[in-house]
């Protein structure tokens, strides 16, 4: 099988390694079936996109909606490189899944607006499929409403022009969309379980996602939650696009 490619921007090594492991585990991918480029550290190489079954862009400490003057040189470089990559991905309708930071990146590329209107606190949220989501080959395996892990300061203000809305929630109307036939994005995290989310929150406890003084209570609540259906998005994506 041709491997899938994870485009990562996690500055913290602990989170970066945990994210890679989570995408491999939840996607049912074995050794050599998921490769990674850490864009926060290294420039995007000249990729042979035909060498991969598909691409996944994970979450990030970067915020797309931050003023340009507040972004680091690395973030500005990453945004330029991802825009160029998406020109090819969308133009060729290649298999792509953007998760959390990935939905904003793809959304902006497609003419959408990312702002702080629909940020969501850390936790689980009920996500409901649209009629298009219920008919979509990747999302159709999910229940009409399912819980998913979220925690983001920014989100798309609306569906990008020409995109198909696949899922939404009361606090965040754009939880998933599709461009063309094969380019997907989710606001929620399709790779996480409760333990992984607690570990991630521990690293980001001082990054403004929640009151650091409430971390212990938040972690205790998260450990009682589950979101067993959300990872089906990533698993079905892998199953649909895996190729020799």
From TrEMBL:
Gene3D superfamilies: 3.40.50.880
InterPro entries for this protein: ChyE-like, Class_I_gatase-like, GATASE
Lineage: Bacteria, Bacillati, Actinomycetota, Actinomycetes, Kineosporiales
Domain Glutamine amidotransferase, residue spans: 50-193
One Pfam family hit: GATase
An annotated GO cellular component: cytosol
Naturally occurring in which organism (per UniProt): Kineococcus rhizosphaerae
Name of the protein in its database record: GMP synthase (Glutamine-hydrolysing)
């Amino acid at each position: 099988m041709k491997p899938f490619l994870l485009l990562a921007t996690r500055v913290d090594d602990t989170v970066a390694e945990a994210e890679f492991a989570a995408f491999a585990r939840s996607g049912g991918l074995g050794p050599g079936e998921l490769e990674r480029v850490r864009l926060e550290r290294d420039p995007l190489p000249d990729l042979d996109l035909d060498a991969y079954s598909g691409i996944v862009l994970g979450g990030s400490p970067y915020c797309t909606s931050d003023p340009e003057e507040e972004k680091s040189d690395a973030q500005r470089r990453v945004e330029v490189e991802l825009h160029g990559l998406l020109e090819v991905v969308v133009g060729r309708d290649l298999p792509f899944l953007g998760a959390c930071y990935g939905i904003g990146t793809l959304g902006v590329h497609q003419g959408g607006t990312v702002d702080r209107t629909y940020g969501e606190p850390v936790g689980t949220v009920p996500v409901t499929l649209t009629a298009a989501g219920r008919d979509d080959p990747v999302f159709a395996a999910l229940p009409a409403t399912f819980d998913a892990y979220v925690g983001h300061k920014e989100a798309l203000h609306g569906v990008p022009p020409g995109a198909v809305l696949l899922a939404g929630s009361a606090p965040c109307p754009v939880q998933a969309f599709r461009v063309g036939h094969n380019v997907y994005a989710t606001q929620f995290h399709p790779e996480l379980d409760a333990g992984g989310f607690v570990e991630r929150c521990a690293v980001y406890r001082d990054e403004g996602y929640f009151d650091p003084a409430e971390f212990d209570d938040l972690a205790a609540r998260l450990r009682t939650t589950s979101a067993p259906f959300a990872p089906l998005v990533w698993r079905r994506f892998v199953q649909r696009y895996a190729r020799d």
